[in-house]
Structure formats: C-alpha cells, structure tokens
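Sequence in, structure out. Go.
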Amino acid sequence: MADKIVEFGFGSQTVKFALPAEKIINEIEGQPAQPITDVPAALRQALSNPIDSPPLKKLVAKGDKVAIIGSDITRAWIKYEQFLPALLDELNSAGVPDSDMFIVVGLGGHRAHTPQEDEAVYGKEVCRRVKIYQHDAFDKNSLSYIGKTSRGVEAYINKRVAEADKVILTGGIVYHLMAGFGGGRKSIMPGISAYTSIQGNHLLCMHKEVGKGISSEVGSSLKEGNPMYEDMLEIAALAKPTFLVNSVYTPEGQFARFVAGHWKTAWEEGCREVERIYGIPIAEKADLVVASSGGFPKDINLYQGSKTIDNAYMAAKPNGVIICFMECRDIAEPPEFSDWFKHPTLLDFEKAVRKNFTIPGFVAFKCAVIARENPLIVVTKPENVDFIKKTGMIPATSAEEALAIAKEKLGREDYTITVMGHAANTVPLYKG
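Output:
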C-alpha cells in the first residue's frame, strides 16, 4: 500500500505525514488567480465600466453629501489604503470635494476605532482628506428607522448614512459561514445597523424550533433560501445604496478583481469570482477529512480556526471523522469566543446563544455542534489539550496520534480520505 506524503502549514512551520494514496479521493486547493499589478488603475477601470449601473461619475454631482461605508479593523486584509484614494479622486472628478464626502466605519456591534486604527485601515492620506465617523450600534440618537423586513426585523441604520444624498458600499468578498458570502449588503447589515436590528437578523441563523440548533439553510456559499442572507438583502434595499465597490483576492491575499456598480448584482458577480477561486466542486464526501488552516495567522487561535473546521465539515460524510491541524498559539483568544465553552449540554449552549446572540457565540456553538456530529480531532500544541477537551473536540499533539484516533473511530479499513491543505479559504461544494 503506497503512501502519499502530505505537508501542512502548522503555525509558522510545516508538518509532514503519510496517508494511504489509494484512499485519497479529493485534494482540495484553491484555483490560481492572477494578481492585479496596478491597483488604482484596476479600480478606475471598474468604476468606468460598472455592472448594471451608470458610471459613478454620472450618479453623483456637485452639492451631494456622499457617505462611504468602510469595513473595520477586523477586515484589515481588504487593504483600503491601496484603492480608497482612487475612489475619492473619482468623486472629486465628478464635482464632489473631499469636504462633501465622509466615511462611516461599519463596526456592526464592534468597538470604535482609535485614530491610529483608522490610519491602519484606511491609510494616512484618506484620514487626512475626509472625515471618518465611528458607527455606534447602541446609540439610539445616532440611528434612523428605515422600515421592517418581511421576517419582522425592525431596521435601524446610521443616521448620517440615512441622511446622505448618496451612499457607496465598500468591502471585500469572501465566503461567510453564516451569510453565505461577505461583502455587499453586509456593509449595511450588520455594518451600520442598530444592535437590536443585528440581533433580529442574526437570530435567523438558528432553527425556528428551540432544541434543533442551527438552521440547515444557513452556511458558506448558501444564498437563496438562507433566511439571514435574504433578510440582509431586504434591509440593504431599504437603505437604498447608490453604488458598490468590492474586491476579491488571490489565495496569497493580493487583489484579484474589483467589482463595481449596482449594490446587489455587482456583488453577485464578485461572489461568482470567489466561487471560481475558492469553491471546489467535489463528487463525493469522505469518511476522513484531513485539513490544515494553512498555518499562521489562520490558526493563531481556535476562533480563526473555526473556518477550517466548518469547511472540513462540509467535505465529511455524516459521522465521518475530521482531523484539523491548528497550532493555536493563542488558544484562549478572544475571550468573547472561548468563554462560551462553559455550558454542560448543547441545549444549554443553544439557549444561551438564542438569549444573547453574538457572532463569536454562534461560531463557538457551531463548532460544538460539529464536534458532536463528527468526531473532530485537533492536532495542536500540548499546552492546549485541556482547552480542546473543554470544547468537546478531541486533542492530539502529533499527526501519528491523530491518525490512530481517527482509525479507531472509523473502525474499518475501507475508508476514503479528503485532504485540504488550505481549508480556511477553500470551500468544498458538494451537489449531491
């Protein structure tokens, strides 16, 4: 029986181990993408040739107050400093001076930026040219009511955005384990929405019946039929955005494409590009999925590693075994995630999430659900063993130990394997 040597990222190092070659049915990796070499030029090209929209220059005019919604520091990978000055220049050329435009940081329920963090996200030039306001999801006086969705969510958004003459959405598009995809309408919900509105929308991730956990309609790549996604669309439509500029990235984190134009259809084109690069069709799920986040920083802690867990789960058969290689050098960070693993039962966990929904809490709950459904072995540092046990996952400190546990759990020799070397980014798309 010939072996295949697999090499995975693990923190700042790599690990090598052998797997039986004839058992491997899928090796999931992202598709290569050509990086953009001139970012400002690529943005100007997208602005001049928008999707389902007139060019931005024809949508704004002298005298307009223009709100630009930007992502916060948790999305620093968007690299605003490389393209935002060109967007401001485009508005200038249409007759809108810097003094008539402003950025609202789409914080959702996150804390406000410091001035230093504004500079880190948007760049010194942008911070010098335009005013930057921090959205506050908890300040009722800074919010405006724009309507109610068909699912009963009362939509309140940032007052400055609601009162602006024109609104431009910006951000980056990646897979999202709740909303299907990031970017697009997420600038509005949760970006500049009231916390009560965010709670109402995000609770749609849960099954309608208490005790049944997470809705099966919610997950990476899922749009139509996903109640959270569809509710987000309704809220964004109520906000009436003028234009969208979103970016897609190569597996190495460089710009691959800008999409610009109509806030929904341009974003959908970006989602198709994300699927082309990161969505990997598979004909069959496997009995054993062996996955790595790809190393640091994607495996810096279990919260970041949750993307790997979720994507590996999508490639596993029901009751199949999952092995995830994640160093987790900061295992207990952030506490708003790790502190959720304290409930004696999944039902208690679920009720706590429903009562005080947070995204870290939901992600922690989903990890716990996956670990209940599929034996989930985490190869990590020896000092992390006790924490991993607390989550309901199975710790291992070497590839050999993990494979031995997996074989015991499988209980047979005729098993199949899927290998995912960069599982934090790649999403297996099974159409069965």
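Check: The chain has two domains: 3-30+283-430, 39-277. The longest helix spans residues 359-373.
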